[in-house]
Amino acid sequence: MRRLVGRGLQAFSAGLLSAALAACGGIVPSTGGPRPPQPSVEQPQLPPPPQNALLAGVRRGPPVTSLQMAPSDAAGALSSFRESCPRLIRRADVSALTKPDDWRQACTAAANWGAGSPAAFFVTFFETAQVSDGVAFTTGYYEPEIAGSRTRLAGHDVPVYALPRDLVRARPGDAPPLTDGRMPLGRYAPDGTFTAYYDRAQINAGALAGKGLEIAWVADPVEFFFLQVQGSGRLVAPDGTVTRIGYAGQNGLPYIGIGGVMRDRGLVGSGPGHYPASMQGIMRYLREHPAEGRALMDLNRSWVFFRVLTGDGPLGALNVPVRAGNSVAADPRFVPLGAPVWLDLDRREASGLWIAQDTGGAIKGANRFDTFWGAGDQARVTAGGMSGRGSALVLLPKGVLSRLGAR
Fold first, then answer.
1. Looking at the DSSP assignment, which residues form a beta bridge with residue 242?
2. Is residue 168 included in any domain, yes or no?
3. How far apart are CA 80 and CA 10, in angstroms?
4. Secondary structure element (H or E) that encloses residue 358, with its range
5. Which residues form the signal peptide (predicted)?
6. Residue 394, beta-bridge partner list
7. What are the Cα distances from residue 163, in Å, to 48, 249, 356, 394?
8. Gap between the Cα atoms of 247 and 245, Å rounded
9. Domains in the chain, number
10. What is the maximum span of the chain, computed from C-alpha positions, in angstroms?
């Protein structure tokens, strides 16, 4: 799942309480107006941030034997690592740390490990690496359950849309490329010009109505807003039928964390008269102030489209199931997707061994992670309050660091 704070399930986490975070870039119409004054003296230019782990700097970490892995933690991580292997041995690693063949020996062993100690598996096949300074910040996400149905029922009036066919990437020459070299997402107008896709306010106003894109209907627009932030979830119909929906795509417009906006406006916080700075507090404000809440949600122009999922799930960016307590979202430029990650945090429940199986629009940079906590009320509470700081190590197959010349 590709979360917008964090897939792709895109998490209510500290990211929603931070300032605006950009997810996928897109073409945003100009607001016009005069240009700001140009400086008469050339200003110093800051160097661009490193774009992969190798450029950020990699050094050898402590031996895996020094990591105090709990048996259940190692067992869960081994299971998730095994599920990632079919993708891991074929997927190009944009972090520039590994090659697909680097993982083959460990993946072969994982498939046949059997009753052996899970911790011994990681000791046998892996070494630790510190990327950049290793200083980690971790949030949490979960799979929400909200009232919804595959058919429109009384009280279920909020549409869940499939990915529209007219949402496309610009052809070269029709728009400037994004910073990563890809062409932006948008749509072609009837006159053939490329423009931004419909934003949240336009879609809520009916820009996609009547186009046959509705795959389900939900009861609460506030709950659905947060499900879109997560990137996937479960719809529970009045008869108890459960439909799982997952991330299918996004409209190409930037993600804005409304929690940061509400904090800056003094709507949430710790002072008297404020709504609590938590997911529950934000949702309460949105419901008790419907007009203002709608305007706040529309500030997040990003819109997520869904598909109905069958079988195991929810699925992460590797297109394998993410598992509660085992799967973590990371920036693939700094952590190979499928790699084990060791987190040592000031939040004990989030410390331990995880497998990087997902990505997120706000999960950007070295040592930025988003831990997955599953579904249900406890998962919601844990994810909503997760904000952990500490250190991170990436586990790489033995021999990789020597090839990279890491100290």
1. 236
2. no
3. 20
4. strand 352-360
5. 1-22
6. 129, 341
7. 34, 6, 26, 35
8. 7
9. 1
10. 71
- Report the SS3 class of residue 291: helix
* Tens digit of each residue's pLDDT (9 = 90 or more) over 66-120: 999 999 999 999 999 999 999 999 999 999 999 999 999 999 999 999 878 999 9
Q: Which residue, chain included where needed, has tokens 């989030």? A: 350
Residue whose structure tokens are 């990591």: 67
Q: Is 252 helix (H, G, I), strand (E, B) or coil?
A: coil
Residue 326 lies in a domain: yes
358: CATH: 2.40.40.10
pLDDT in tens, 183-219: 999 999 999 999 999 999 999 999 999 999 999 999 9
Long-range contacts of 119-123 (CB under 8 A, 24+ apart): 119/69, 119/71, 119/74, 121/74, 121/78, 122/64, 122/67, 122/69, 122/74, 122/77, 122/78, 122/340, 122/353, 122/395, 123/64, 123/65
The beta-strand segments (E) located in 154-303 are: 158-161, 168-169, 185-188, 194-195, 214-218, 233-236, 242-250
- Residue 320: closest CA among 363, 345, 290, 357: 357
Could you tell me which of 373, 381, 385 has the C-alpha nearest to residue 347? 385
Distances (CA, A) of 171 to 176, 187, 355: 10, 11, 36
For every residue of 97-164, DSSP letters joined together read: S--GGGGHHHHHHHHT-TTS-HHHHHHHHEEEEEETT-EEEEEEEEE-EEEEESS--TT--EEEEPPP
- What is the spatial distance between Cα 345 and Cα 44, in angstroms, rounded to a whole number? 37
* 88 three-state secondary structure: helix
Asked whether residue 99 is assigned to any structural domain, the reply reads yes
Tell me which residue range forms the domain holding 11: 2-23+51-142+314-404
DSSP 268: B
Three-state secondary-structure class, residue 27: coil
How far is Cα 84 from Cα 132, in angstroms, rounded to an integer? 25
- Whether residue 148 lies inside any domain: the answer is no
The pLDDT tens digits for 118-171 are 999 999 999 999 999 999 999 999 988 999 999 999 999 999 999 999 999 999
Cα(251)–Cα(89) distance, integer angstroms? 31
Q: Which residue has the tokens 């450029």?
A: 55
User: Is 0.85 surpassed by the pTM of this model?
Assistant: no
CA 113 centroid distance within chain: 31
Q: Residue 406: name the closest of 134, 128, 136 by CA.
A: 128
Buried b (16+ CB within 10 A) or exposed e, 214-233: bbbbbbbbbbbbbbbbbbbb
